[in-house]
Amino acid sequence: MKSIFLAITPDELASSLDTVWMLLAAMLVFFMQPGFALCEAGFTRSKNTANILFKNFVDFILGSLLFWFVGFGLMFGNNGEGFVGTPNFGNLSFFDNGLPVEGFLIFQTVFCATAATIVSGAMAERTKFSMYVIYSFFISLLIYPISGHWTWGGGWLCNGEETSFMMTTFGATFHDFAGSAIVHSVGGVLAFVGAICLGPRYGKYDKNGKSRAIPGHNLMAAALGVFILWFGWFGFNPGSQLAASGEVNSTAISHVFLTTNLAAVAGGFATMMVSWLKYGKPSLSLTLNGVLAGLVGITAGCDLVAPWAAVVIGLVCGTVLVFSIEFIDTRLHIDDPVGASSVHGVCGILGTIMTGLLATEGGALLGGGWGFFGAQCFGVLMIDLWAAAAGLVLFYGIKYVKGLRVDKRIEEEGLDIYEHGESCFN
To answer: Model pTM?
Structure first.
């Protein structure tokens, strides 16, 4: 019997390997969805667990349908030209590396669902489920795909032509390898705006404005969720290489694996030590978020920075996280139950900017000049201004038209029974 491999050319074999790697990475990123669900549920109260789990399912259900129907075309259509693309599944000429369009669609779909899921944590325990469905709808349909078109869709922030705005202004284009800004800071900024719009949970602040801790019900679930997210990030970052065949791709994937893990452990270590020194005891809940902070921070430049720079990014993000969570809570009086605004928003911005400082080629602190750094700062500013403006219109529009928040009695007794007629725990 002749081997079927005799009929496959080296190029076809390489394309098959690349496709399998892309789909495997998509599976890993999809597995981050239960990670977010467990992490968010563990950091909040048991009476809202079914509601939180349900929202994570809704994000993926709606995100998959809407991104396939419209968002994918907006993000990657029109050859990357213009402000937004064309909502046409077949118009994907910007993406032309020989991989199946359907495979690339599912890979991008899981990223879209991640951006929407980030928002739910900051708005947990007090949001009407029906209104959650509406704002998740618009994040997947418009908000994420439009800023994604500016960047991964070949739009104006990543246009490398000599006469383009970015090249004439900075001499460099914006770079975000796997989504520190495009996915995480967009989700974090939307989460921040949503938490402001909702207001704090009842009992979070006393009459003098002093913050009261509202502990989550299950740190074991939160810890398991973070482990799952950490595991899934090895699809999120290395998978963004979109190819595994050949020495160049395999080396690139190995490098991204290493920098991703180093930043995660550095972030966790920094948060552990800072919380220990600041509060007298090492905090598990903060350290869990510190690991995520390092992962979020490295996601933009995991392909461009050296291992030592990945450690630096992780240490900075893990350190800043502690102060950011405290500042948002005690100074701004914004109630973010899981710290999503800090983990994804603040650290996503930090990691994107630090890529401009520490990139092996082009990094400002490594002799590359300040052009690339300027492009990074400008790019993340534009992306997050768009997210903030869209979030203000979306959340305040829902608030004043239909109402975003549940009644006080429902919030006090728990959303599970009132919103869904069932409880996660009997």
So the answer is: 0.94
